[in-house]
Design goal:
Blueprint (H helix, E strand, L loop, with lengths): L1 H20 L4 H21 L4 E6 L4 E5 L1 H21 L6 H18 L4 H19 L5 H32 L12 H14 L9 H7 L2 H11 L1 H13 L4 H20 L4 H18 L4 H19 L7 H5 L3 E2 H15 L5 H11 L3 H22 L3 E2 L14 H17 L9 H21 L14 H23 L2
Parallel strand pairs: 3-4
Antiparallel strand pairs: 1-2
Helix pairs in contact: 1-2, 1-4, 2-3, 2-4, 3-4, 3-9, 3-13, 3-18, 4-5, 5-6, 5-9, 6-7, 6-8, 6-20, 7-10, 7-20, 8-9, 8-12, 9-13, 11-12, 11-17, 12-13, 12-17, 13-15, 13-16, 13-18, 15-16, 15-17, 15-18, 17-19
Main location: membrane
Protein name: Cation:proton antiporter
Organism: Pseudocalidococcus azoricus BACA0444
């Protein structure tokens, strides 16, 4: 199994370099990488036996493959496949596919790692590949956004590296298992880096501008798969160390409310989706035992939404409300929005019910409130007018390619199939509760939210504020760790 895993990890990197040298074969080489990842991820989900591989004993470099890894790997494979289909007929160079494959392989490496040094190397590679993909169109806007992303990412990884060094100093090993032996400042620094890379709470406020301004397929990749790179190690650590789980859960709940709060009053559709991602990663870390399934359902739906919104004539909701979009595009938007809202027969329903079942007390009440807020947010997407007669490429619409339909149909079909992962969610009580939340959320959006045209200030997202927010999170983390672990 060691040889198969190492070969599988290195395959996308080899294919990525080959794509640069053989650009005419780049799309087909990407297909090979995606199929191999999908097969490996599904095997990890189905297998009942977790696998642990120790590669460098003295440094504690360890790979751990289990069902949790499987769900994240499958998410990465399906989102990359949809992005590949979308780009198939577009004039993308071999360099684009090289970066896409490097990004894909580095994400896989994160999802099977159980040590801090492997996570560091993979996160740095992901940061560079993401930077190059965001800047790919080479407009002044995307170059500025990509440099902003690279700077924030580098600062986050600097903090993370200092924390990883402190873990090694305490254990002579980079293994996750030695985390609690490290000083509190080491744990805080590691968490700070992961929170920022994962777009969690206020340290994730770099995310709305980055995801909204990138090209359509890059936005889908970032929000559907890349943001999970920072989340996966947090989930793994939360499952390993029960002492740390309440604090991570608290930040997850805060992130869920922050994202929903901003998204409720957002008028730009791409920014709304990006802000929703901050909220949804909060759900993922708040319920770590369901994190894999929740990440899969969110990744599929969010990639569908970004690919579709990129083909709408406008990003402003007010202007979209004054026009009509083709019914087929509206159908894609609605199906993905329903899944994130937790509508039955889609993967989001089982993921949300399962995640909320893991919570008790005030945490349960809080996340049920955040779930209602999510329904209100995505009602704004569902209520966009549409017409059966409106054609793609007609007035007020953009033309879409066959690759777009292949990509979104793959994602939507996967949402339907993944609905079977948690069938115990289909009880009468759960169905009635879900339908009540959805009807209440739609009513609140239609009768109340439309009456308020409030634009929340974006001052916290300014470049000069982002480092300050990271520092605030560091103080909160250190205080939280001191309160949870020292007493």
């Amino acid at each position: 199994m060691t040889e198969i895993t190492i070969t599988w990890i290195l395959l996308p990197l080899f294919l990525g370099m080959s794509s640069y040298l053989l650009p005419k074969l780049a799309r087909y080489l990407t297909v090979i990488a995606v199929v191999s990842s999908l097969a490996y991820g599904l095997q990890a989900i189905v297998s009942q036996t977790p696998i642990t591989l120790e590669l460098l004993d003295h440094f504690g470099v360890i790979l751990s493959i289990d069902g949790l890894s499987g769900f994240f790997i499958v998410t990465n494979a399906l989102v990359t496949a949809a992005v590949l289909a979308y780009c198939w007929v577009l004039p993308k160079s071999g360099f684009f596919y090289t970066q896409l494959l490097i990004l894909h392989g580095s994400l896989n490496a994160i999802f099977i790692s159980a040590d801090f040094v492997t996570v560091y190397v993979a996160l740095e590679t992901i940061g560079i590949a993401s930077f190059l993909l965001i800047a790919y169109s080479r407009t002044e806007r995307t170059i500025w956004v990509s440099l902003r992303y690279l700077f924030v990412s580098s600062v986050a990884m600097l903090f993370y590296l200092m924390g990883a060094v402190l873990v090694y100093q305490a254990n002579h090993s980079f293994s996750f298992s030695g985390l609690l032996n490290a000083p509190l400042e080491g744990i805080a620094l590691i968490f700070l880096g992961l929170f920022t890379k994962g777009g969690l709470f206020i340290s994730g406020l770099w995310l709305p501008l980055t995801h909204a301004e990138a090209e359509t397929p890059v936005s889908a990749m970032l929000s559907g798969a890349v943001v999970k790179a920072g989340i996966f190690p947090l989930v793994r650590l939360s499952l390993m160390f029960g002492e740390l789980s309440p604090m991570i859960q608290l930040f997850g709940i805060a992130s869920a409310f922050l994202g929903v709060g901003y998204a409720l009053f957002e008028s730009d559709l791409k920014r709304l989706l990006a802000l929703s991602t901050i909220s949804q990663v909060g759900f993922i870390v708040a319920s770590p035992t369901v994190a894999g399934f929740y990440a899969l359902s969110h990744g599929l739906a969010k990639a569908s939404l970004f690919l579709t919104v990129g083909n709408l004539p406008e990003r402003q909701l007010a202007k979209l409300q004054a026009t009509v979009i083709p019914a087929r595009l509206w159908g894609v938007l609605t199906m993905a929005a329903l899944s994130i809202s937790g509508f039955p027969l889609l993967a989001g329903y089982g993921a949300k019910v399962w995640a909320l079942e893991q919570l008790t007390g005030w945490q349960s009440w809080a996340m049920n409130g955040a779930a209602l807020g999510t329904v209100v947010v995505f009602a704004k997407v569902i209520f966009i007018p549409f017409a059966l007669g409106a054609s793609q490429g007609g007035p007020g619409t953009k033309g879409v390619t066959g690759g777009f339909w292949i990509g979104v149909l793959l994602l939507l079909l996967s949402l339907v199939i993944a609905n079977g992962v948690y069938l115990p969610a289909y009880t009468l009580a759960n169905l009635l509760k879900t339908l009540a939340v959805i009807v209440g959320g739609w009513g609140a959006s239609f009768f109340l939210l439309r009456q308020f045209q409030v634009q929340l200030p974006r001052v916290l997202e300014y470049f000069q504020q982002l480092i300050g927010l990271i520092s605030v999170i560091l103080v909160l983390l250190f205080g939280g760790l001191w309160a949870w672990l020292a007493f």
